[in-house]
């Protein structure tokens, strides 16, 4: 369904992402992992069409997305990393605005918004300004906005950030269920346990390049570690966490 | 201090200007007006005018009053601008309270910062006029003593008037915070600020009448001047110069009392509201409570049916109207422009009625009133369209909007006209109907509507963005040119159109000239718009300046 072919992005002359290639089929949940500055967010912005690659292409159903971004985005649901919303709009007003822009017919839109707000425990505060929402509530609003038009492709960038335990559980189950319904999900996160539980495939980035790509089981088998955390650490981390911990304690003591 | 200068939303709202530029802007009005007054006091020009007996102190009275009002308006405006930053906010609370500092020390530090800023602002606003104005007034007077005496009294009075104004605004903030629940205060804050801004602008218009009234003060013991703070400071000025009769001396004493009372009130209100709000800030909601837009939600479906025909227009209209009405900076800026319009229109109205009385047909000045109101409103809304609101949140529009959509101007036009036309119909129409009957009222309504639509079209030439979602435009680099254009545009729009209409009332044949001019403007707008749309992307989110040169990439083509 989605193909990234040699995606490259340079800021000035500094490469942020270099030759990232992967494929995402319907029903697959592809987890994108990497340490800070590994190019995850830049990759996400390129595959949503928010950022134009310096080189390479993104194909959706074998068509370059930049040929017709509007119809591509019609089939795309996106939850960004930061819950940046207009604070003076209410949750319902924001979702209504998104729904109108997605051209969802009015009576259907109102009912769908209210149902989703109720299911994600936001209905009582639907008319309150988004400024008064907690981070988790804003994250849920973004999730509803992404799901509103039943998209075929979901791109989720740290969607669990700020969510409480039960909402996080709902979201994890929801992602799995969407995968089973044939939706393609691109899932970016730092939380390795969740990626391990949810994702069928993995894309591990480091310094803007692909370090590992394949099914979750294959990657773990290849590296020879039973847990994803160990595998990830084996692949990307330069530092020895035990040594750094000891040194921090030493510095604090010395002070 | 840095936080107060740059606002509590520094980095989030792009309505910040540098400290140097702000100080220069604040100093500008006093200096500029002082320079304009040089010719009035020059001995050579007095000789040319045949003024052999010239009393500089008597001649300076209206100008002195104008400087007092100007310093109060500018300093009050600054206090209004810093309204949100004067009191520590949630971010300050989170950053400071976790540190081992007593809240009393935070209070003291903030108080000291406010006092320093007040002094800085007072000096900056009045420095130029305190040097240039006395120098101008004393130009024809022999000896240095007169200059120094005049200068210190002027400097002291305008400085005290500034301090009074700053504390008055500060005290009203504090009092509202003390008297109202915090959430209610947050909710009405923008409206109160707009009201105070309008009152400050209205105070400027008193400089045309108060100097005349003050001379008649001894004969009118119940004069409303006794309740006007700017008149108190003029009384103080005359008292210090030894030219005050008993009524002016009384005003001067009221200035001192008023200053002390405002200062004490500001401090007490600040201390109480600090105790009440700051220490409980995390318990208080940061945003207006209650249900937003529930009572007005029926309006949008009606507008969808009547004037909003596409998803872009429907979603965009909702977004723009809510930003205009709910985002404080935007509401304040647009309200300020409209307030200015009300002040100028009401001054024109009173001046006209005082000079001419009633007549069978309205004069050009009377006809210009809705033009003035609409011009200020259209310019104000058009100006705030360019000021971004929560720019990081515009990703949703970047994601969902089709860049080739050519409806930005159509949306902006609908928003502007939705504000401007009701203003004409509801405010101006009943007035003309009452004074001059149906014929004049209907014709005037039609003419104003046509010109307002044309004005909107002129201001929307080249407009290709969703309001509030685009980065700051080139305006920053050409602010002076834009300001001059707005001023010239004001005179052209309000005077010329009203004059043409007045002529048409006298002789309907002359109305053809007016019609021809409006058609000419319409044609010119269409031509310019056609040329622009052929080259550019219809919808943008970044106002990037056109490059000084283009690379032709000849080598690429050769390869």
List the helices and strands and how they pair.
The complex is a heterodimer of chains A (255) and B (559).
Chain A (H helix, E strand, L loop, with lengths): L1 E10 L2 E11 L4 E5 L6 H9 L6 E6 L2 E2 L4 H6 L1 E4 L11 H11 L4 H14 L15 H13 L5 E5 L7 H16 L3 E5 L3 H7 L2 E6 L2 E7 H8 L4 H9 L4 H14 L1
Helix pairs in contact in A: 3-4, 3-5, 8-9
Chain B lengths: L1 H5 L12 H18 L1 H4 L1 H6 L7 H26 L1 H4 L3 H8 L5 H35 L6 H36 L2 H24 L4 H6 L13 H12 L5 H32 L21 H8 L4 H16 L1 H29 L7 H22 L9 H6 L7 H52 L19 H28 L4 H25 L18 H5 L1
Helix pairs in contact in B: 2-8, 5-8, 5-9, 5-10, 5-12, 8-9, 9-12, 9-13, 10-16, 12-13, 15-16, 15-19, 16-17, 17-19, 17-20, 19-20, 19-21, 20-21
What's a concise summary of this model?
The complex is a heterodimer of chains A (255) and B (559). Chain A is built from ten helices and ten strands.
Main sheet characteristics of chain A: 6 strands, mixed
Choose one word for the global shape of chain B: globular
Kindly estimate the percentage of residues of chain A that lie in beta strands according to DSSP: 15-25%
- Span of the ends, CA to CA of chain B: 59 Å
Number of helices of chain A: 10
Biggest sheet layout of chain B: none
Helix fraction of chain A?
40-55%
Q: Which regions of chain A have little confidence, pLDDT < 50, spanning 5+ residues?
A: none
The radius of gyration of chain B is 27 Å
Tell me the helix content of chain B. Answer: over 70%
Strand order of the largest sheet of chain A: 6-7-8-3-9-10
DSSP strand content of chain B: under 5%
Average pLDDT of chain B, rounded to a whole number, is 80
Largest interface: A-B, 33 and 35 residues
Q: What is the number of strand segments of chain A?
A: 10
Distance between the termini of chain A: 56 Å
Q: Which oligomerization state do the chains in this entry correspond to?
A: heterodimer
Annotation, overall tally of beta strands of chain B = 0
* Number of helices in the DSSP assignment of chain B: 22
Q: pLDDT below 50 for ≥5 consecutive residues: which ranges of chain B?
A: 8-15
């Amino acid at each position: 369904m989605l193909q990234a072919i040699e995606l490259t992005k340079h800021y000035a002359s500094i490469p942020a992402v270099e030759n990232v290639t992967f494929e995402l089929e319907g029903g697959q949940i592809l987890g994108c992992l990497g340490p800070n500055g590994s190019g995850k967010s830049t990759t996400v912005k390129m595959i949503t069409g928010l950022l134009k690659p310096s080189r390479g292409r993104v194909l959706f159903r074998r068509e370059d997305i930049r040929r017709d971004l509007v119809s591509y985005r019609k089939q795309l649901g996106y939850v960004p990393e930061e819950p940046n919303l207009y604070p003076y709009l209410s949750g319902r007003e924001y979702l209504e605005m998104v729904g109108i822009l997605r051209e969802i017919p009015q009576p259907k839109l109102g009912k769908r918004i209210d149902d989703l707000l109720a299911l994600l425990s936001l209905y009582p505060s639907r008319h309150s300004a988004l400024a008064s929402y907690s981070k988790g509530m804003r994250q849920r609003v973004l999730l509803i906005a992404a799901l509103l038009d039943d998209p075929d492709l979901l791109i989720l960038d740290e969607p669990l950030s700020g969510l409480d335990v039960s909402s996080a559980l709902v979201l994890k189950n929801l992602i799995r269920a969407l995968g089973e319904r044939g939706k393609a999900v691109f899932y970016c996160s730092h939380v390795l346990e969740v990626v391990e539980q949810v994702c069928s495939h993995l894309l591990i980035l480091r310094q803007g390049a692909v370090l590992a790509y394949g099914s979750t089981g294959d990657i773990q088998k290849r590296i020879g570690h039973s847990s994803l955390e160990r595998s990830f650490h084996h692949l990307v981390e330069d530092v020895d966490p035990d040594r750094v911990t000891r040194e921090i304690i030493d510095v604090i003591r010395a002070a | 201090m840095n936080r107060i200068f740059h606002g509590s939303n520094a980095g989030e709202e792009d309505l910040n200007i540098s400290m140097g530029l702000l100080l220069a802007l604040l100093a500008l009005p006093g200096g500029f007006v002082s320079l304009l007054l040089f010719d009035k006091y020059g001995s050579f020009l007095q000789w040319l005018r045949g003024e052999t007996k010239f009393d500089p102190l008597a001649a300076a009275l209206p100008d002195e009053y104008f400087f007092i009002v100007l310093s109060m308006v500018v300093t009050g405006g600054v206090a209004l601008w810093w309204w949100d930053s004067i009191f520590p906010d949630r971010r300050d609370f989170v950053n400071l309270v976790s540190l081992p500092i007593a809240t009393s020390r935070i209070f003291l530090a903030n108080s000291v910062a406010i006092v320093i800023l007040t002094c800085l602002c007072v000096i900056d606003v009045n420095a130029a006029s305190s040097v240039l104005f006395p120098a101008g007034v004393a130009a024809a007077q022999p000896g240095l003593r007169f200059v120094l005496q005049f200068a210190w009294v002027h400097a002291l009075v305008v400085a005290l008037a500034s301090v009074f104004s700053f504390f008055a605004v500060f005290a009203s903030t504090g009092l509202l915070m003390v008297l109202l629940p915090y959430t209610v205060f947050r909710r009405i804050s923008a409206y109160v600020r707009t009201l105070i801004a309008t009152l400050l602008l209205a105070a400027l218009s008193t400089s045309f009448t108060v100097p005349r009234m003050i001379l008649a003060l001894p004969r009118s013991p119940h004069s409303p001047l006794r309740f006007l703070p700017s008149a108190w400071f003029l009384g103080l000025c005359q008292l210090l110069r030894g030219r005050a009769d008993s009524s002016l001396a009384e005003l001067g004493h009221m200035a001192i009392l008023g200053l002390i009372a405002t200062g004490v009130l500001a401090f007490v209100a600040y201390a109480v509201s600090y105790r009440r709000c700051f220490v409980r800030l995390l318990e208080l909601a940061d945003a207006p409570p209650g249900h937003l837009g529930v009572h007005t939600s029926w309006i949008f479906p009606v507008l969808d049916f009547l004037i909003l025909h596409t998803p872009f227009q429907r979603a965009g209209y909702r977004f723009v109207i809510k930003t205009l009405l709910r985002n404080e900076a935007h509401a304040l800026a647009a309200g300020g422009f409209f307030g200015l319009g009300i002040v100028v229109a009401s001054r024109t109205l009173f001046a006209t009625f005082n000079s001419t009385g009633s007549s069978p047909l309205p004069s050009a000045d009377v006809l210009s009133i809705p033009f003035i109101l609409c011009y200020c409103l259209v310019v104000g809304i058009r100006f705030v369209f360019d000021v971004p609101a929560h720019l990081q949140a515009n990703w949703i529009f970047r994601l969902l909007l089709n860049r080739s959509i050519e409806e930005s101007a159509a949306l902006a036009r609908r928003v502007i006209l939705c504000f401007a036309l009701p203003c004409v119909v509801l405010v101006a129409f009943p007035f003309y109907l009452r004074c001059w009957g149906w014929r004049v009222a209907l014709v005037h309504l039609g003419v104003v509507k046509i010109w307002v639509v044309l004005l909107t079209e002129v201001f929307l030439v080249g407009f290709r963005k969703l309001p509030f979602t685009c980065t700051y435009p080139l305006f920053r680099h050409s602010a002076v040119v834009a300001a001059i254009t707005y001023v010239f545009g004001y005179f052209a729009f309000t005077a010329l159109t009203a004059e043409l209409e007045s002529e048409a009332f006298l002789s309907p044949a002359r109305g053809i000239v007016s019609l021809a001019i409006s058609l000419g403007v319409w044609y010119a707008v269409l031509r310019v718009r056609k040329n622009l749309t052929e080259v550019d992307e219809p919808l943008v989110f970044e106002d990037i300046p056109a490059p000084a040169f283009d690379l032709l990439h000849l080598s690429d083509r050769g390869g």
